[in-house]
Amino acid sequence: MHQRFSAQKLTLTALFTVVAIITSQLSIPMPGGVPLTLQTFGIALIGYVLGPSGIWSVLIWILLGIIGLPVFSNFQGGFQVLAGFTGGFIIGFPFMTLFCGLGSRSRRLPAALALGLLGLSIPHLLGILHYSLLTGLSFLPAALVMSVPYLAKDIISVGLAMSLGRVLRRRLTPLLTATRG
Q: What is the per-residue burial (b if ≥16 Cβ within 10 Å, else e) of 22-52?
């Protein structure tokens, strides 16, 4: 029975890696070099559904991108994407998933949302710092280009991911617990 549970966990990890890939492709190019995507929604959803172990789906997605598969926004892949304008956000996404995953364990919606928003702050902070290093801009001008225009969309994305994630998690729980001996 333990092997079956492991196979189901691996399947869910792979399925939610695909969620990261698909939500990254739904993008609209923006002037600052960071596209408007559903990626933040997908990353938060992974955490809220899979819990902290959702970090594996995100790390696999990043690894697939690093080795050159076109899994990042606009079907990009390769290490150069991490070195580019969006690299700080990508590096911050596993942390966001972890915090959303911790939020998934809370029965209190405000606490679950607060953890997700705390997690959201990490890719934004790393994205600003990374962009600042690449462009030579100071923190505030970099934030105005890389973070501020996306904050409302990203906050809404975390809230929607939390709501949908709670529903999906409840529906997946019987599947996962049925395999435990």
A: ebbbebeeeebebbebbbbbbbbbbbbbbbb
Residues in the chain: 181
Instruction: Read off the pLDDT of residues 81-105 as tens digits, 9 standing for 90 and up.
Output: 999 999 999 999 999 999 999 999 9
Is it the case that residue 179 has pLDDT exceeding 80?
A: no
**Phi, psi at 37, each rounded to 5°:** -130, 175
- Dihedral sign for Cα 154, 38, 98, 59, please: negative
Structurally, how many domains does the chain consist of? Answer: 1
Give how far Cα 43 sits from Cα of 28, 34, 84, 137, 179, Å.
Answer: 18, 16, 20, 28, 26
CATH number at residue 53: 1.10.1760.20
For residue 35, give its domain range. Answer: 2-175
**And the tokens for 100?**
């959303």
pLDDT in tens, 3-47: 555 788 899 999 999 999 999 998 887 776 677 889 999 999 999
Angle separating helix axes 109-135 and 87-104, nearest 10 degrees: 170
6 lies in some domain: yes
The rounded distance, in Å, linking the Cα atoms of 120 and 37 is: 14
In the prediction, which pLDDT does 177 show?
58
Examine residue 181 and state whether it is found in any structural domain, yes or no: no
